[in-house]
Design brief:
single chain, 71 residues, alpha+beta
Length: 71
């Protein structure tokens, strides 16, 4: 009985382990990409900005503390 319980627990632990995918980088399509930014100006207004000409890539990797995006 104890071996069955331990086997079931071990199987469940391995079956529910998170899957780690390889990092993927996508090329942004300038014809279908628009960057919008909106902020609150001290409660008086909500200005916004639109950046229509976008060129670059998007990566699914998690940023590290050494990456410029985290500063």
């Amino acid at each position: 009985m104890r071996i069955r319980l331990l086997s079931a627990v071990a199987l469940l632990a391995f079956a529910t382990a998170p899957a780690f995918a390889a990092p993927v980088t996508y090329k942004l399509d300038p014809a279908h990409t628009v960057v919008l930014a909106q902020w609150n100006h001290f409660g008086f207004s909500n200005p916004s900005a639109s950046f229509g000409e976008v060129d670059g890539t998007w990566s699914t990797t998690r940023p590290t503390s050494a990456s410029p995006a985290c500063r």
